[in-house]
Amino acid sequence: MTLDIDPVQSDRSRDALTAAHLYYLQDLTMDAIARELHTSRSSVSRLLSHARETGLVDIQIKSPLDAPSHLEQQLEARFRIEAHVVPVPDSASDVDRLERVALSVARILGQYFDSNMTMGIAWGSTMNAISRHVTPKQTHNSQIVQLNGAGNMRTTGLGYASEILGRFGTAFGAHIQQFPVPAFFDDPATKKALWRERSISRLIDMQATMDIALFGLGSPFSGVISRVYAGGYLEKAEFDALSAAQVVGDVATVFYRADGSTDGIALNERSTGPEFTVLRRTPRRICVVAGRSKLASLRGALAARLITDLFVDESTARALVEAS
Amino acid sequence: MTLDIDPVQSDRSRDALTAAHLYYLQDLTMDAIARELHTSRSSVSRLLSHARETGLVDIQIKSPLDAPSHLEQQLEARFRIEAHVVPVPDSASDVDRLERVALSVARILGQYFDSNMTMGIAWGSTMNAISRHVTPKQTHNSQIVQLNGAGNMRTTGLGYASEILGRFGTAFGAHIQQFPVPAFFDDPATKKALWRERSISRLIDMQATMDIALFGLGSPFSGVISRVYAGGYLEKAEFDALSAAQVVGDVATVFYRADGSTDGIALNERSTGPEFTVLRRTPRRICVVAGRSKLASLRGALAARLITDLFVDESTARALVEAS
DNA sequence: AACCGGATTGAACATACGTGCAAGGAGCCG
DNA sequence: CGGCTCCTTGCACGTATGTTCAATCCGGTT
Q1: φ and ψ at B216, to 5 degrees?
Q2: Could you identify the residue whose CA is nearest to the C1' atom of nucleotide C7?
Q3: Could you tell me which residues are beta bridge partners of residue B212?
Q4: Residues of B in contact with A107 (CB under 8 A)
Q5: Cβ of A170 < 7 Å from strand C?
Q6: Is any Cβ of chain A less than 8 angstroms from the Cβ of B61?
Q7: Cα–Cα nearest to A115, from A92, A89, A84, A141
Q8: Interface of A with B in 92-111 (CB under 8 A)
Q9: Where does the record place the Sugar-binding domain (chains A, B) (predicted)?
Q10: How many Å from the CA of B9 to C1' of C2?
Q11: How far apart are CA A224 and CA B208, in angstroms?
């Protein structure tokens, strides 16, 4: 057994690297590059795609700091967060919105995550969308930790959640830490007991000391039903209880009201997501929101001070600013 | 008088920014972007060019660290420098070589230079070529300092050198410090006297404390005549003296031999470039070389330990490694 | 108000680029 | 040694992008 890299792979990458050099740093046409590399133009096109996909080429966009859009400035001033407004035409559907915001986030994420870091991630449609596009970036000694369990009455949830987790993991070359518990326990006592198990508490500790948290928002009572409510995670009675408690949203299956409060929301006792008091210790907490249906939920999360960095589509951002 | 930015400029930049967002982060086609921005596709193409040219979009290429080319590794091991080999086909002319290496350097330079830094730059065909392509990057409180005088019998040299200097200055938003003296004094005493003038000594001090030096190499006795020898800077007699002293090259009009030594080279007493003992204190000293005609000169500069970072075209790099 | 550069715009054209496809390997059984 | 699959390659085609040019707009001047 040897440590050599697959020579074919390495050949390919070496070529991709020179191709990228010639294309992006020397402005040669793919045709010219093809001649220098003794191959066809189409292969060069493919090499360059490969270079971009694998993060060999890194394209960043830098706001000249003096020109964050008016919207971003307002959000930053009003909520004390770093805001990133993703331009999406007002006519776009909510699906488009999510897809486009997710794509933007996926491309930028590498600027936040680095070697020796631990990032906690939730799961759900937002995280799923992001995971499908993350641009790879090689890191060392870094960890991706699942924030909340994903099991329900029908499945252990390991498939869906770990797919998401896995995509982040391979993109960053990070170890992944799954959280093999249901989204909600039936009995709070089970949770307490499990939390004392070393295998689980190790994970809880990692969550408590992570450098970055990345999450979307659940919004139980708005048009688009978040995955948590659709997938058999909650019974009708539980759902009604949330409604009665005036819940407006959740982060990693921990629920909150419009004012950001969580006290007396019974379901949280059985939820596996990190308590907000813990979450708030994470230095960078990136929230991704797309679509106006999540507006109430977003207001609540802001009130709960769960967010340090917000990625949001333009029209939702506008709505957020206007109503305040 | 107001501090507002030209609203037209700012409009343009804002659009360029969103266009860049949509194009590079969301993979929209220019056509789609045109519709969102209510303009024509060609305008979007222009906006994107603008965004790239002004450094709004920053494209980096990251060697996965495990894959610096064989050549780069050898150079780094042998000379204790950071090497960047620029791929250029062996068939390319020396002019092409220079142009392509310069373009690469111009694109990468922003990764080295930042706010609050001082960079010293020489002048000559290499620096000229680089200056014509530097990708802008906004910095604050940074300085560009001219390393050596550019005047000669016919002109003050302020035009040519300051054009170069100016391009770097505007690209980085840096203050520029010209060096209004000839390349060589006739009398060493004049130099000594001037060096005591506060206006000049201030500049010398800046050179002594700069963070980065950027220079090409002169190679008096090889095919392509460096600007120093062509432009009326040296008399026949001086040229002969250099030859007799076995000089192989110069950095900022300070001459050295193949072994890197400078002792007893009379012309250096009258040269306005920084002494090597001073130059070597600069933490990062970036040398840009293109063309095998500069090989001897490059060997000397390496022997003189003037270089910490080398940018060189592929075939010159190969020649350098092979002959050692 | 009429006039004049100079900059900006969209249409049209000319390139350059991405991708489906069929052909040609390279490895892997049977 | 076929015969199989899976992967890579170059070609051909359609689309996306860069660029020229004439028309238009704008700010300043007479």
Answers
A1: -100, -170
A2: B8
A3: B119, B284
A4: 24-25
A5: no
A6: yes
A7: A141
A8: 100, 103-104, 107-108
A9: 67-321
A10: 29
A11: 64
3-class secondary structure per residue, B45-93: HHHHHHHHHCCCEEEEECCCCCCCCHHHHHHHHHHCCEEEEECCCCCCC
Q: Strands of B201-244 (E only): list them.
A: 212-215
Q: How far is CA A61 from CA A19, A111, A145, in A?
A: 22, 11, 28
**Considering only CB atoms, which chain B residues are within 8 Å of A10?**
67
Count of other CB atoms within 10 angstroms of residue A315: 19
How far apart (Å, rounded) are the C-alpha atoms in residues A198 and B24? 45
pLDDT by residue for chain A (324 residues), tens only, comes to: 333 444 455 678 889 999 999 999 999 999 999 999 999 999 999 999 999 998 999 999 987 766 667 899 999 999 999 999 999 999 899 999 999 999 999 999 999 999 999 999 999 999 999 999 999 999 999 999 999 988 766 665 567 788 899 999 999 999 999 998 988 888 899 999 999 999 999 999 999 999 999 999 998 877 655 555 566 777 778 888 888 999 999 999 999 999 999 999 999 999 999 999 999 999 999 999 999 999 999 999 999 999 999 999 999 999 999 876
Residues A38 and A32: their CA atoms lie apart, in Å, by: 10
Q: How close does chain A come to B9, measured CA to CA in Å? A: 11
Query: Which residue shows structure tokens 């688009």?
Result: A224
Q: Which of B150, B168, B167 is nearest to B159 (CA)?
A: B150
Q: Is the CB of B132 under 7 A from strand D?
A: no
A261 touches strand D (CB under 7 A): no
CA angle B201, B205, B209 (to 5 degrees): 170
Mutate to test the interface with B, among A4, A12, A25 (most CBs of B within 10 A): A25
